[in-house]
Amino acid sequence: MATQDFLVELGTEELPPKALKPLSDAFTRGISQGLTDAGIAFGTVETFAAPRRLAVRVRDLADAQPDKPVEKRGPAVKAAFDDAGNPTRALTGFATSLGVTPDQLDTMETDKGAWVVYRTVEQGKPTVELMPELVEQSLAALPIPKRMRWGAHRTEFVRPVHWVVLLYGNKVIDSPIMGLTPGNKTRGHRFHCPKTLIVPTPDDYEVVLKQEGFVLADFAERREQIRAGVAELAEREAGGKAVIDEDLLDEVTALNEWPVPLMGRFEDRFLEVPAEALISSMKEHQKYFHVVAADGEMLPLFITVANIDSKDPAQVISGNEKVIRPRLSDAAFFYETDRKSRLEDRIDRLKPIVFQEKLGSLYDKSVRVAALASKIADAIGSDPALAERAAMLAKTDLVTEMVLEFTDLQGIMGQYYASHDGEAADVAKALNEQYMPRFAGDDLPTTLTGCAIAIADRLDSLVGLFGINQPPSGTRDPFALRRASLGVLRIIIERELPLDLQTCCEWAAENFTVLTESDTAATVVDYMLERFRAHYEELGIGAEVYLAVHARRPTRPLDFDRRVKAVEAFRQLPEAQALAGANKRVSNILTKQGGDDIGESVDTGLLQDAAEKALAEQVAHQAEQVLPLFEQGDYASALRSLASLREPVDNFFDQVMVMAEDDATRNNRLALLNRLRNLFLRVADISLLPTAG
């Protein structure tokens, strides 16, 4: 089958920069999936995205769908012909519905008799006929929360669409797209090349735009050119290093078709303002990259990326310097004004700010968190007084001028202002660390006071919202309780804190008087332990390992983590599957024979067979070996030791009948199995692991 390259380009007004990459990726996926669903063979799919265009190129696209054999079954042969062999109405009706005559039908034999059947080959449709609808479907499915209309058009899209390119090889597919007739003409840079350009074939697309149109259509190429240009400019002009935030880089890439990095300067006096405030102002409002010296200190420089290769770049730089000056002046004014009032003087200003209607204000939350943080600090060997002080100040920077203007600086400015007020170093640092980790993989609090505040703040939200029956549901999680749960688990595990979730949640519940749900603490603990499942899957640990540990419901996260890692290591041992199978068998036997009523006291005088004596001896020996390990939390060593029970366990089941006729013998053997199983249950229910065979 013949193939050609295919190209579709949608030319628009400037697309929303933060939406450009997701729109481009979704458009590409839609085209690929549409071709796959249509059964059309194709090669590589390439993506292009710039501020005024979305494009997809498909290499080696077949010129038609493959022919498809079609078989339709009609009436049974017995019902298709009368006694004289003439077609019945059933047969003629079937033939007529297909537009054929009875003599064009075949018969087929099945184990249920003979049937009339129609066989033909459905010819595949030409690709050029299918692509317009496929493109329209892909555009309709794009993740656009709010579409707009323009002019007299009834067409809707995220921005007005002005031109469409639709090429198969060198042939234009001229079926309407988005209310426009496609062609082979694109448009260049709005200022450098404000005219139409002919794209002879899909292969010429990005070359024409780059060489004639001053447009780098490939998002990835443009992104790397900006990265390299910004880094090189910082080093060449200032001997410094440009700090390139990946999200900002994506946004700047989406704003520029022909990127040209330029360096500007701001007044040295602004360096007295915390660097984070300057960076936030430059990044959020102006999309500038900041520059640091070799020692990491911020320099009074910024790099902007212009969407034009100016003949007088100094004018462009001067314009940007004029724009950034009032922004930085505002930051300096806010910083100076905020420091005139102490954070503790702002505590009462939290009273009118509602945290949650039933759970009170931010002041109420601060009081609760202070009480909880004090207990947590004491439990982890920190200073309760420092934790309580930090918790009462924790939200006060939310009412400062700086944070009201730059909300992403919450906590960061709190630390600066607390230090200025002369608060203890741990208290000041905790005001920033309370929000850690802010996202998956983020840094954790480094101080114990910070850990106490971060945990207490999250647990207060969890217990409070669950306690008034407002847990997360489906994708709705307005208070980010899933993230809060994972944050608590990470802090406790990675900082190796000896905290019990059940105890901490009970402490949190004591601070409320409005909870309506019963046993809220246990509900929250169950919810948090369930978050472990996804956490371990991301680490490559199977769900069965998590479930084996979860069955024992250990409520200390550090202990839970050690068990999981021990079971994962045990699962790799050659004895693991056989012992998991044996535990499953033991569990089934014990459940049928009374379960929890069965003790584990073994009378050695009642042991008869050599195999049961050997198992009893080994179980007793292992108990002496592993019980101290359990007390130390060394589950990995304990399970490695228990793995040696495989052979005596296998021999026991091969040679001993558990359900002996004599009651005493039978009960003694059940007690032996119960003692065996309870050793493993000190870690996890390994009967839930995959078994041999």
TrEMBL record:
<keyword id="KW-0963">Cytoplasm</keyword>
<dbReference type="InterPro" id="IPR006194">
    <property type="entry name" value="Gly-tRNA-synth_heterodimer"/>
</dbReference>
<dbReference type="Pfam" id="PF02092">
    <property type="entry name" value="tRNA_synt_2f"/>
</dbReference>
<keyword id="KW-0436">Ligase</keyword>
<keyword id="KW-0030">Aminoacyl-tRNA synthetase</keyword>
<keyword id="KW-0547">Nucleotide-binding</keyword>
<comment type="similarity">
    <text>Belongs to the class-II aminoacyl-tRNA synthetase family.</text>
</comment>
<comment type="subunit">
    <text>Tetramer of two alpha and two beta subunits.</text>
</comment>
<keyword id="KW-0067">ATP-binding</keyword>
<dbReference type="InterPro" id="IPR015944">
    <property type="entry name" value="Gly-tRNA-synth_bsu"/>
</dbReference>
<protein>
    <recommendedName>
        <fullName>Glycine--tRNA ligase beta subunit</fullName>
        <ecNumber>6.1.1.14</ecNumber>
    </recommendedName>
</protein>
<feature type="domain" description="DALR anticodon binding">
    <location>
        <begin position="585"/>
        <end position="686"/>
    </location>
</feature>
<dbReference type="GO" id="GO:0004820">
    <property type="term" value="F:glycine-tRNA ligase activity"/>
</dbReference>
<keyword id="KW-0648">Protein biosynthesis</keyword>
<dbReference type="InterPro" id="IPR008909">
    <property type="entry name" value="DALR_anticod-bd"/>
</dbReference>
<dbReference type="Pfam" id="PF05746">
    <property type="entry name" value="DALR_1"/>
</dbReference>
